[in-house]
Specification:
The complex is a heterodimer of chains A (481) and B (127).
Chain A: H1 2-26, H2 29-54, H3 58-80, H4 91-105, H5 116-130, H6 133-140, H7 155-166, H8 172-197, H9 203-213, H10 231-247, H11 256-266, H12 270-286, H13 291-294, H14 298-313, H15 325-328, H16 334-366, H17 368-373, H18 380-398, H19 404-415, H20 417-435, H21 451-457, H22 473-480
Chain B: H1 3-26, H2 34-45, H3 55-63, E1 72-75, E2 85-87, H4 93-100, E3 107-114, E4 118-125
Classes of the chains: A mainly alpha (481), B alpha+beta (127).
Amino acid sequence: VSRAVDVTLAVLLVIVTGLPLAYALFGRLLLAVVLAPLVAALTASGATMAMLVFGGSLRWWLPIAFLIQAAISLVLLRKRGRPAPLPSTKSADVLWIALPVLPLAGLVLTSPGRQWDSVMIWWLHGAAFARGADFARGLFSSPDFFFSHFDYPPAMSATVGGVLTFVPGFDLYVAQFVSSAVTLSAVCAVALAVRLATQNVSPTVSRIAALGAITPVWMYNPFGVSGGYSDALWACSFVGGLLIVLLGGNWTARPALPLILLSVAALGKNEGFIAIVILALVVSIKQRRELRRAAMIWIPVAAGLCWSIMARTLGAESDFLAPGFAERLPAIPVMNRMRQIASEMWDVGAAVWIPAFAVAVVCGFVLRERRRAFTIGTDAWLWIVFAGYLAALTGTYLTTANDLTWHLATSLDRVVLPLLLLATASVVIWAAIAVAALPRTSPAVEVPAQASKSARSKPSTDGDTPMESPELAAQDTRALR
Amino acid sequence: VPRAIITKVTRFAAVVVAIAVVWQAVQSNPQGGVSLAVSQGVENFKHPHWQREEVVDGLREAYAAQIPAGSRVFVINLSDRIAFLFLAQTSVLAQTQLVSDRSAADYEVELMGDLETGFKIQVRQLR
């Protein structure tokens, strides 16, 4: 009973911490509850970084961060009144996505609770943060704790640490429930991003596509969400943010959701930070004519960079950039390693990537006008980011100081998750475009140039507020290209 | 070939491929899949891990594959059930104790046994 009370308190604490700002930004209570754990993860990360820099305890820093967040929420609500809700995020949409995920959330009760990465990295960091600045700082530079990679970013561990500060006992199950709540929130964010991107196709088709897009989360790691890993958290946050930024028209008009998601990704894992840098470069090129607006895509990069600098200042070492990195580069058997990497990647990804890419290429030629009629941005940029992250992964394995066979066997199925999610999102969105009836008031297939305008002027089918403000509509056409 | 036919075939193919791609992730396979997660979850529910108690049990369960018989395991603070439970080589005992000086109580844990018979763990308070 005591444990049940503890885990219930822990999950409530995570939701309540993120709820004020989530509601002030997204304007719908149910949506805010689903996304609140991600806001809580950012709040806890900020509090943890402040604690490590200035000293003290999360017992103080977390309430301070919460009060700042609550004050921002109050200012937003008083200034703008009840915020305009995000489109296509009514209760029915949120329930459509959240309810099928709930049975999978129940796996937290049954999955193996103690896996190496979760116990020895994420929850250990969380428990260290819960013990205060002096203790945690000591572990960053301790050679005994090199195995725990204290350079890894804090989104997951800071949230666990924040809860362990107020729910005493350092209980594994509390940590497991908190990890699962934050990760499931990110999983729902991917589905919501697909729903937002396909908001102009029929709701049923759009919702089915949204659910299809999240299935790869369990493809190689059935307990990746409920077992306490951080990979699904950053991968889903990254892909959710990317879909809104690249496919959702003028994302700069309402940047809160993508920036929160991308910041969680940048603070989720080192691979997440690399992926965010690649995305920021691609967005800067895509929106080069409106760089001032698009510049906010670098905010998540700045968050990840702050952590990286701070962790190294405290003495944490990256096993990738450990001493000797430059010296071992010339001795790398490039061709042998490339063959091995390509073979392993083919095994885990080809069945998804190749058909999804083929559909993207063929549909990009044949169904281009239909896509414009539904005001969904081109997914060419999505595949460019895909290629960039694939290249970064290949480079990491190519230069690894570890035994390559071991390194691939212990990590590849987890680090390719964003690539599986991107490819699946691409193909389900194309399927939604293919199967949905064109809007009757928008004969855009015949007159592509008027497509986005007519689709925007059409009354929303479910009575939602359009995502873009009218004055920014002209930029939207450019964004879709 | 008329463009209308190309469009229809492409639309049909896009839907079929999307279903096939999603099916890859849903179906059980040796490494995972949504259905494997659910079925394993249901199976595990008969013996829920959260009913088991004690750090020592958790240690045996989680690290049996990694811990050679006779290894020494140091628990910096037994009440901190997550964090400060880790394997250490004898040579780093000094540093381990240095870290543990900051915690309330220090323990040394002796792990005996093997993978076949299971492990017996003795906890001894150092000071």
